Every structure is written in C-alpha cells, then in structure tokens.
C-alpha cells in the first residue's frame, strides 16, 4: 500500500503481475535438422557428381530416387545419400561406374582402331549411353566405360576385336546399317520405365518416343492424350561437351524412326494405356468456358480530321 492509502491499479493486460520479457541468451543457435529428402542438384553436389553423372547414375539404378510433391519431380532421401557415401571406394568408384568415353578413348579401352569401334557400334554390339551435338551439328556418341570393359571380357566377343569382320556383318555395314540411335532409344526407354511412378507415367514414358500423330492412332481419347502429355518426361540430359542444334537442322533422336520400331512403341503404348485405364482411370477434362465478348470501343477520330473540321467552322 502506498503512503496515500491508494492501492496501485492492477495492470489491465496481465492482472496483478507485471510481464517481464527476457531476451534469449546470446550464443550459437541450434542447427536445423537436415531435410529428409534432397533436390537432385543438392544430392549431386553432396555426392560429388556432375549433373549428367547424377542423372546417369539414377537411370542406371546406382542412386535410388523417390517421387516429389509435383508431378514428375524426383527427390533423393537423406538415407540414400548416406548409403551411397558409405559404399567402398566412394566417390571414385561411383564416378567410374558412370564415366562415359567417346570413340577414341573407347577404342583404346578395347585395344582396337576407331574405325572398328564405330563398326561395332553401328552393328549394335556396343550401345551408346549419351550423345551431344558438336559445333558442326554432328551427333557425338558416348559410351559407358564399364560396358566396354564387360564387352572386352566376354570370350564370344574376341573374334569381333581381332581379325576380319565376318561376312554377314560386313554386308550389313555395306547396306548402311546404323542402329546407334535406335539402341540408345531402347536403353533410355528402359531407364524411364524403371523410374516411372505409376502406370500412366509408364505410358507417358513410352509416348515420348512417338510423335503426336502416331500417339493419336493408339490413344483416341483426347483427355488421355492431354494426360500423357502432362506426364511426359523432360528431355534427357546430355553431355556438357557439346551444344544442342536447332531441331530443323538435326532430326530429333528421341523419336522412333524405322517403321518396325514405331510399331513396337505403338504396341507397347497400347498395352500401357490399357493397363493404366484399369488401374487409375482419369477424370475427363471439363470444357473450357467461352470468353465473354468485350464491347468494342468506337474508332478514335484522327487528329487531322478533327483539326480540319475546326478550321472549316472558323471560316
């Protein structure tokens, strides 16, 4: 009680108790917990891989990914990063598994000339893993060094690495046989199917190798075609050694070229879509609302005409 006998009025906010704000102690702040999943760019950085190396490791199954929040998004769990880092020989062993070589280095690994190496690739005995366009807009194929070592170690391939080219194979080369692009598409298609999150994603991965007209021959429903287009995988990552050429100059290597190859992808697409319809039917897309017609404004009068009228009025 005060000297004048009047009690102090209680604080209207906190009652009879005064609020004392205590500042937090100054010192090192607590570290935030590590995220449960990582974006591909960060996962590649933590694993010491370039973007193209990381993409290739994912497609080859060396690094496992999980679906993200957005359609088509892939992420890497922290546990998966720790698993890869704990492997023997990391990171050199992982880089060697995804290392790619060109024709010259590939020929050196096999102990043959570059001409023989190119013949083996054209015949389909060696399958490319990546490609890029050089400054002259030519396709440069890259091969997994691990594939070449395995090819050389097989006893049945020794005849192809030494001596003359067998007559049947030479006849195919003389007719212009070159299945490098076709075999790359088949290999890349298999990688897309392994990372697909569901039946419609698998169908979209197959549709990516066909043009719109070929897809329409198989999938007549417009809503399903729109759904496939929305799930279409993004363009493959190529080596950073080259530059992409305009599509009008160089044909799109992602699209099937030969008629029998086109029919194969169409058949596979039909099977994938039929399976997807039974498992995950899609909802039809509502028709777009017609736009309300806006009132047309009167055409403005030109300044010269208005000035001429004013002058005539004065006269």
Please explain how this structure is put together:
This protein has 315 residues and is mainly alpha-helical. The protein has three domains: 37-97; 100-178; 182-279, no CATH class. Helix content is 45%, strand content 6%. The strands form two sheets. It has a three-stranded antiparallel beta sheet with strand order 1-3-2. The radius of gyration is 33 Å and the shape is globular. 21% of the residues are buried.
The shape, in one word, is: globular
Structural class: mainly alpha
| Total discrete domains | 3
Integer average pLDDT = 82
What string, H for helix and E for strand, traces the elements in order?
EHHEEHHEHHEEHHHHHHHHH
CA radius of gyration: 33 Å
Helices, strands, pairings?
Blueprint: E1 37-38, H1 40-46, H2 51-59, E2 66-67, E3 74-77, H3 78-85, H4 92-97, E4 100-101, H5 103-110, H6 114-122, E5 130-133, E6 139-144, H7 145-153, H8 158-161, H9 167-174, H10 180-194, H11 199-207, H12 212-218, H13 222-230, H14 259-279, H15 303-314
Antiparallel strand pairs: 1-3, 2-3, 4-6, 5-6
Helix pairs in contact: 5-6, 11-13, 11-14, 12-14
């Amino acid at each position: 009680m005060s000297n004048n006998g009047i009690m102090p009025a209680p604080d209207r906010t906190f009652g009879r108790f005064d609020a004392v704000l205590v500042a937090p102690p100054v010192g090192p702040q607590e570290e935030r917990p590590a995220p449960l999943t990582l974006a591909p760019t960060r996962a590649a950085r933590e694993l010491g891989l370039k973007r193209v190396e990381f993409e290739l490791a994912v497609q080859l199954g060396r690094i496992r990914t999980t679906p993200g929040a957005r359609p088509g998004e892939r992420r890497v769990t922290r546990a998966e990063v720790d698993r890869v880092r704990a492997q023997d020989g990391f990171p050199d062993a992982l880089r060697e598994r995804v290392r790619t070589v060109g024709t010259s280095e590939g020929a050196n690994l096999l102990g043959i000339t570059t001409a023989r190496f190119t013949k083996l690739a054209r015949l389909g005995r060696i399958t490319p893993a990546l490609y890029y366009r050089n400054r002259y807009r030519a396709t440069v194929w890259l091969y997994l060094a691990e594939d070449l070592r395995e090819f050389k170690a097989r006893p049945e391939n020794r005849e192809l690495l030494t001596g003359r080219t067998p007559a049947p194979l030479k006849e195919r080369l003389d007719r212009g046989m070159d299945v490098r692009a076709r075999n790359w598409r088949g290999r890349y298609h298999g990688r897309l199917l392994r990372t697909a999150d569901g039946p419609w994603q698998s169908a979209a991965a197959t549709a990516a190798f066909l043009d719109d007209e070929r897809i329409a021959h198989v999938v007549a429903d417009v809503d399903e075609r729109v759904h496939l287009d929305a799930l279409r995988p993004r363009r493959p990552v190529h080596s950073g050694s080259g530059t992409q050429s305009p599509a009008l100059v160089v044909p799109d290597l992602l699209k099937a070229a030969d008629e029998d190859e086109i029919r194969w992808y169409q058949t596979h697409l039909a099977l994938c879509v039929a399976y997807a319809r039974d498992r995950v039917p899609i909802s039809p897309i509502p028709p777009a609302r017609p736009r309300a017609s806006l009132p047309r404004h009167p055409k403005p009068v030109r300044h010269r005409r208005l000035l001429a009228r004013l002058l005539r009025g004065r006269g």
